[in-house]
Amino acid sequence: MKTKKVQIGDRVIGGGEPILIQSMTNTKTEDVAATVAQIHRLEKAGCEIVRCTVPTEEAAKALKEIKKQISIPLVADIHFDYRLAIAAMKNGADKVRINPGNIGSTARVRAVVKCAEEHHIPIRVGVNSGSLEKEFLEKYDGVTAEGLVESALRQAQIIEDMGYDNLVISIKSSDVMMCVKAHELIADKTDHPLHVGITEAGTIRRGSLKSAIGLGIILHEGIGDTVRVSLTGDPVEEVKTAKFILRELGLRSFGGIEVVSCPTCGRTEIDLISLANQVEELVTHYPLDIRVAVMGCVVNGPGEAREADLGIAGGKGEGLLIKHGQIVRKMPESELLDALKYELDNWSE
Q1: Number of Cβ within a 10 Å radius of residue 254
Q2: Which of 203, 214, 262, 315 has the highest CB neighbour count under 10 A?
Q3: Which helix (H) or strand (E) holds 13?
Q4: Are 312 and 294 in contact (CB under 8 A)?
Q5: Domains and CATH numbers, the chain
Q6: pLDDT by 10-residue block (mean), the chain, 349 residues
Q7: C-alpha of 314 from chain center
Q8: CB 122 within 8 A of CB 165
């Protein structure tokens, strides 16, 4: 999908630029210290654009202080009150997310657009299945992909008719295949960048799976310029999952250690599950771009581990340490993790 470039703070999306990862804070935006602390955690995890809700005038004013302490673009999430959108932009928001349909009169939307134009701030037109207008519910007999697309395009057209086209569009649904279809439909109808995600995906486990399926299809088809994985939980987990999806699709490379491990079976004779989890936690502390294998039996383990840069292959209460395809040594199971850590601490190509 060919889209226009849109600048958000010091980042650019669309036009073939790398797909950027977004997340959203779940702190009270008015609490500057808590919000900044969470954004710093998100930045460290790899978040590239962050969104904060702005439900009050105090929250809008807080954006000014928050902006001073973070280094990634800040998006203001606005519902209903156009004055909050204007206040957010005047206090440093790099983008605002609105639905013109719930902002109110044309005059109010025009006031938001005027402020955005004066400050060169893009507007994200967001439409969700949970807030689809009554007329589209009636026209399509409920929430449908067609209704989401028609609603989003109409909302964008309202702003375009005011002479402003610095826009990003998002159309989200908690129904995975409806969301996929909606993105396939809209891809031929607009050149505005698309922010993609499966909304209200659920808990960390379920939501990550739904997002991987939905975003995997959408992104693989060449649709999407920014992504958010929406999870009920710590937003840092959203960033981790988004990075995993983009990396596995071959769309981004973030560096870091990739861990591969076998699924276990009746041949496994070491505590592989515990060991694999410990290895996954261990490698997060190393800025290495390598693959580490954790294998649990003597049948496929040694061969699979040789395919990695560094590997462990377990046997009966013991295991092999393998580096660049060569067996380094055999040792008791209890020493495997420490041996792996030693190799990582002293890693050289």
Answers
A1: 12
A2: 214
A3: strand 11-13
A4: yes
A5: 6-248 (3.20.20.20), 258-345 (3.30.413.10)
A6: 94 96 97 98 96 96 97 94 96 92 86 96 90 88 94 93 95 93 95 94 91 96 96 94 93 86 79 88 86 79 76 83 88 90 87
A7: 35
A8: no
